[in-house]
Amino acid sequence: MLSRSILSRQFRQTASATASLVSRPASSSLSSTPAFQSFFRATVAQRRLLSDTTRQAITKAVASAPVVLFMKGTPETPQCGFSRASIQILGLQGVDPEKFAAFNVLEDSELREGIKEFSDWPTIPQLYVDKEFIGGCDIIVSMHQSGELAKLLEEKKVLAVEEGEGKKE
């Protein structure tokens, strides 16, 4: 809790100092301002919050299956609309359950915050395909609508093979 309150205080100080930059002339160097330097230090401090243990656990989770979704809730009981939409899209696409893993970020606050830093993406859910970060719900929806997601999942061979569709010789 102490580290969160320190970061919150730094964030408030940085935000108020950054607001004063609006009135600065365009010729002043932003990187030499105390507000920028404070913001940079706070950003670096936040990056350090992801422990090596958490980073290793997330790396292992991402590698646990060809398709990995970090979500709020479980595929059976999603706890937010964005997670629900992501699961529904993956189902519509026909992702093979044997090639899919989901991680409930609500069970572990360190995972919930760590995955955001790991991917440098601020929201959950987060989709990984073949260890590559794809994006959040907005990206998944967009790729689904454009056909890019179907193409990607087919290329990565993560779709379920329907009965009667054996390998063509």
From TrEMBL:
Domain Glutaredoxin stretches: 67-134
GO biological process terms, semicolon-separated: [2Fe-2S] cluster assembly
InterPro entries assigned: Glutaredoxin (IPR002109), GRX_PICOT-like (IPR033658), Monothiol_GRX-rel (IPR004480), Thioredoxin-like_sf (IPR036249)
Gene Ontology MF terms in the entry: 2 iron, 2 sulfur cluster binding; disulfide oxidoreductase activity; metal ion binding
Cellular component GO terms held in the UniProt record: mitochondrial matrix
Pfam families listed in its UniProt record: Glutaredoxin
Keyword terms, alphabetized: 2Fe-2S, Iron, Iron-sulfur, Metal-binding, Redox-active center
Name the record gives this protein: Monothiol glutaredoxin-5, mitochondrial
Lineage, broadest ranks: Eukaryota, Fungi, Dikarya, Ascomycota, Pezizomycotina
